[in-house]
Design brief:
Two copies of one chain form a homodimer. Chain A is built from 15 helices and 18 strands. By secondary structure, chain A is of the alpha/beta class. The first copy, chain A, folds into three domains: about 170 residues, Rossmann fold (3-Layer(aba) Sandwich), CATH 3.40.50; about 160 residues, Dihydrodipicolinate Reductase, domain 2; about 80 residues, 2-Layer Sandwich (Alpha-Beta Plaits), CATH 3.30.70. In chain A, the strands form two sheets. In chain A, strands 7, 8, 9, 10, 11, 12, 13, 14, 15, 16, 17 and 18 form a twelve-stranded mixed beta sheet that branches. A six-stranded parallel beta sheet of chain A has the order 3-2-1-4-5-6, sandwiched between helices. In chain A, helix 5 runs parallel beside helix 6 and helix 8 packs across helix 9. Chain A is elongated and about 80 Å long. The mean pLDDT of chain A is about 95. At the A-B interface, helix 1, helix 2, helix 7, strand 12 and helix 13 of A face helix 1, helix 2, helix 7, strand 12 and helix 13 of B. Strand 12 of chain A pairs antiparallel with strand 12 of chain B.
Chain lengths: ~425, ~425
Amino acid sequence: MKKKINIGLIGLGTVGGGVVKLLRDNADVITRRLGIPVELKAAADLDESRAKALKLGKGIYTKDAYKIINDPEVDVVVELIGGYNPARAFILDALKNKKPVVTANKALLAMHGEELYRAASKAGTSIGFEASVGGGIPIIGAIKQGLAANDIQSIYGIINGTSNFILTKMTDEGRNFGEVLKEAQALGYAEADPTFDVEGIDPAHKLAVLANIAFGTPVKFEDIYTEGISGIKPDDIEYAREFGYKIKLLAIAKVVDGEVEARVHPTMLPDHYLLAKVDGVFNAIYVVGDALGPAMFYGRGAGDMPTASAVVSDIMDIARDMIHCSHNRMPALGFRSEGRKPMKIMPIGKVRCKYYMRFAALDRPGVLSTISGILGRHDISIESVIQKGRGTENAVPIVVMTHEAVEKNLRSALAKIDKLDVISDKTVVIRVESGE
Amino acid sequence: MKKKINIGLIGLGTVGGGVVKLLRDNADVITRRLGIPVELKAAADLDESRAKALKLGKGIYTKDAYKIINDPEVDVVVELIGGYNPARAFILDALKNKKPVVTANKALLAMHGEELYRAASKAGTSIGFEASVGGGIPIIGAIKQGLAANDIQSIYGIINGTSNFILTKMTDEGRNFGEVLKEAQALGYAEADPTFDVEGIDPAHKLAVLANIAFGTPVKFEDIYTEGISGIKPDDIEYAREFGYKIKLLAIAKVVDGEVEARVHPTMLPDHYLLAKVDGVFNAIYVVGDALGPAMFYGRGAGDMPTASAVVSDIMDIARDMIHCSHNRMPALGFRSEGRKPMKIMPIGKVRCKYYMRFAALDRPGVLSTISGILGRHDISIESVIQKGRGTENAVPIVVMTHEAVEKNLRSALAKIDKLDVISDKTVVIRVESGE
């Protein structure tokens, strides 16, 4: 019987520091739950000052991650350096040494997940990644275990706190993207280079992980259609409000006609939806199961302690497996490897949804009829129209909400419309989800 | 290595029927996740017509639950008859036979839980009860595993769909309790005798279960202060709205100064809180952990298929333990038995919160000053007042929102106020939670 669980931690940044603090501060409740303590045996970081700031005990700090990976006394390796390399090698080498791994590295999982899951399975050990999506929200565990009896039908996630903070500020204060981004950077909610967050790359990484465990099929980052929020204008937020919608950066995955739809883009949601009310840096994942129906999981999607909460919960799950010798009891992806089924990824052109469009039209007679004629010939019917600021020489916005249409048709129609003489600028398109 | 998991199901009512359907309809996804199938081996109910309606296979139905409890081929016993007896005996006898048990029986757990948990632990097997709180919402698993690294600080639950449906209708349509109750009964959302739901007994049962696993301390039904919604008047809902609040039946458990506060009562919540926006028959549990911060879990709290989703997820968890011989890997309450600590239950008189009060006062000069004088002498200070309908012979409402005060003081003050000649009716009191 094991007397304690020894943790080897690689990466002492924000989340790594949170893990050190949590293992220290909540040692009592952790031991009361597990029966034995979880102790930090070793911690590696290239920057020694981080170790000093955390006041690590004697003999714990090392510059060399391989001192941890190859230490026979380390029971669980926690990788929190992020990025592809050397994180990938560290994890693969730890798994080769039959050490279970816990990571928060969604980018790595989205790009090289299959390799890592296979390595864990081959070594007969586990890889935990609860912290990779939704910070402290236990969404991975919920899908793998709590919803295990369901055929999961769809997922709608607000899983990038930076974008949600920016969109919330833009919505509440009518300010533009660039200005609010600067504020988010000043507050530490956005990085100096915000591309991963505001262009939808980070939520697409996370969606790859979620879709994989929800549907039991490989979904990679490249499979996901991705658009960010940098093109969202206060005008569109205002028109959305008039139609009764809010704009959120959603990560959407569905099974439709046996194919997987996976996309990240700004999305209009009816403003009475609970998901539309998730504001600021908070995250929420709305999941629909065939038995359960809709469920939503809400909480802090980032930050040192919320993310550490997820990392340490993974460590504790692995500790229970070590205590009970039930290694790899729960497969990494919730499905047994032979139970995973490759499914076709639906190309974005085939996706059906409602659309919001804002046309920059010159104020000439018959413009609306020309536009609606072209839409009609592409099988797109209009649900409602807002037309404002008539009687001017400048372009005036014509704002249209469509019924459900096929993306490919919409793109063909727009290619024609945007070439019209009476259209003075590229048409703005935002997809709409309204459960229709 | 086991080839399949055999289920023995006792109770073929709404939820039992859902379990039969789910095991049948989702056999594929269940096998893909577990590697082996989960099969219904036997099902008992006193009413044979239920078995017929479910088209059970040959040899599955029995009238005698003990044919299941004593069947050596049954791997997991599922108790879904509800009530105290014979459910208690069935579960204890199944555990004695070293069979793991899954139940949705919150009333039994709240009254006799300790006996059942001890019996499971003694038999070295498990008792799963995810379905006992929040229907299909995986809140038990979230607290036991996903939030395991946290010292849980508080829980605020909307965990009775009937009451939430009634309050939502009363709020949206300005109708009174009795009328909406009748509608809920006609829709099948409320029982013929609605006492358990509308008087807060059912949510108190569930809160006993939640507090137990959240804090690692025994909390029994009798420990919980309970008030229902039958006294809520449309007037109070309207005044709440004027103050910016909504009334919800909340189940609240907190650790305050080392004591456990556990209470169920109508509660005013700021209307911008996400929890205040959970409407209709939906449930939501808002949990605050010291590392995670706030999180919320939302979904259908009742119904055949959502509840079956939770029952079958428990079965699958137990199946994994059987496959990996890790019996009782996760203790029933999330804490090892030696890790549970008895904590003092705070008497309701000691509880501190803000209060809403509606006085039925005669329209005489100085009434408000008399009331506020008595409140002040009991250490209760007023935050705001609404006084309406002056200049009439009848009693007029004086509506007061207090700052935080101690319940015992409030009760003493009210005993005096309600005896005043100028007060014509018992004062209405509703507790307020605003994170102050």
